[in-house]
Amino acid sequence: MGQGTGLLNDRTVMVTGASSGIGAAAARLFAAEGAAVVLMARRTDALDKLAAEIRADGGRAEAVTGDVTVPADAERVVERAVAAFGSLDGAFNNAGWGSIGTRLHETDDAVYDRIMDVNVRGVWNCLKAQLPVMLGQDSGGAVVNTSSTAGSFATGAVSPYVAAKHAVLGLTRAAAAEYGTQGIRINALMVGATRTELMEQAIEAVPQLEQGAVARAVQQRLAEPAEVARAAAWLLSDQASFVTGGAVPVDGGCSAV
Fold it and tell me: Going by C-beta distance under 8 Å and a sequence separation of 6 or more, which residues neighbour residue 176?
C-alpha cells in the first residue's frame, strides 16, 4: 500500500458508500493505514474494482454489494467482515443521498422518503448490525457516521436533507451515550461541500452551487474526499480514544462564521 503510519493496524473497518467519493477515498486511506476494509455500496462494478485495486497494492479488502436501506444487507456485510477477518473494529457509515433545488412544498414525498431512508435509516440499519458484534469483542469498537454542515444549520440544501443530517447527529449522540461504558465510541463528521462525483454532477446541473459553497467556507474552496477520509481515520483510531458523541467539522470553517 501507499505510505501510511499504521494508524489502523490490525483492525477491520466497514465502509458504506464505498464505490465513489468520500467512501472510496476512505477505503483507500484505511487500507493504507493498515486496516482490512469491507466495502459496501450498490454499484457492484465500481466496488469490485476498488477492492481489487486495494488488494493489488498490498492491502486487504472485501467488496459486498448491498443497500444500506435494507437491514439484511447491512447484516450480511457485517457477517462478511467477521468471516473474512475475524472481527469488526470500526465502521464508517458514510452512504448518503440528496437532491437539489426544490423548496419544501414542491418536494415529492418519494424524494423525502428516499433521502430519509438512505441518510437516517441507513445509519440506523448499520448501527443495529454493527453494535452487537462490537459488544461481543473485548476490544469494543469505533463508529463514524457522516453528517453534514446541514446537520447543524440550514445550508441551502433541500429541507429533507437538512432534517436527515440533523437526525444522524441525534442518532450518533444517543448511541454514544448508550454504549460509551462498553468500549464503543461513536462520532459524526460534519462534512462541508466536498468535490465528489455527485457534487460535480450537481454543479454541472446548477453551476452557482459551487460559488455558494465556496463563499460559505472560510478557506474559500471545496473539500477533497481524502481530507474527509483523514478525519474519519483519526476518529476510528486510538488517537481519538477520549472522543465520543462528537460532531467534528470538516468544512473549511463554514460552521465558524
Answer: 185, 186, 187, 244, 245, 246
112 catalytic, yes or no?
A: no
Catalytic residue among 30, 161, 179, 234: 161
- Residue located via cell numbers 465558524: 256
- The one-letter amino acid at 140: G
Domain ranges in the chain? 12-256
Cα separation, 135 vs 147, whole angstroms: 24
| Cα Rg of the chain, angstroms | 17
Which amino acid, 21?
G
Predicted confidence pLDDT, tens digits, the chain (257 residues) = 556 899 999 999 999 999 999 999 999 999 999 999 999 999 999 999 999 999 999 999 999 999 999 999 999 999 999 999 999 999 999 999 987 778 899 999 999 999 999 999 999 999 999 999 999 999 999 999 999 998 888 877 689 999 999 999 999 999 999 999 999 999 999 998 888 887 877 777 777 777 877 878 889 888 899 999 999 999 999 999 999 999 999 999 988 87
Phi, psi of 48 (to 5 degrees): -65, -40
What's the CA angle centered on 122, arms 116 and 207, to 5 degrees?
55
Q: What are phi and psi of 20, to 5 degrees?
A: -160, 175
CATH code for residues 12-256: 3.40.50.720
Compute the distance between CA of residue 16 and CA of residue 236 in angstroms, rounded to an integer.
Answer: 15
C-alpha 245/C-alpha 130 separation (Å) is: 17
Which DSSP category does 9 fall into? T
